[in-house]
Amino acid sequence: MRHGACSGGSIFRGQIDVPLTDEGWKQMSRGLEVLPGPWDRIVTSPLHRCQAFATQLGLDKKLPVSSSAGIREIGFGEWEGQPVDKIWTEQQALCDAWNRDPDKHSPPGGEPFTSFRSRVLLTISDLSVRYTGKSLLLITHGGVIKLMLTIANGWSPSQMISLQVGYGFAASMEYDCTSKTFAIPYPELSTYVYRP
What we know:
3-stranded parallel sheet, alpha/beta, 196 residues
């Protein structure tokens, strides 16, 4: 599940730490309503916008909660904390290149997409081995979820831009640690692919 809305408005918030808004908490509660559960454990990004909700949910559901830096959002480097519209206006060529081919282009000083992909997939693989047969609730970020949806559908990284993973978005995914593949029992493809 993705975290909810955060303070700061429409900014690049990769690895900066910002709190959820009141609406963000509500969005996450609504997101939980569509997930089947039950879970054996909650695994959360260490960033506050994920961890605060995970900690409270763990108390409410009497579930163990662990933190994993491997499911943090991608780092946006010099774009961190900057308004999205401003960056797109001032650095449109780089933004377009990054969206077109994230394997070759990154925000200035940002985490390379190949490194991001490697750390997320290694983390998912490690979790699947450590908690074999267990059902985990991952509380994470839009980029992490888009990456997993993209891989599950066999798409190229450039297709991540077409995915709509709003605040509180929830998906049910199954990971096979032998074949290293994802299946998506929920939701339907049409609910998260943007079609203008």
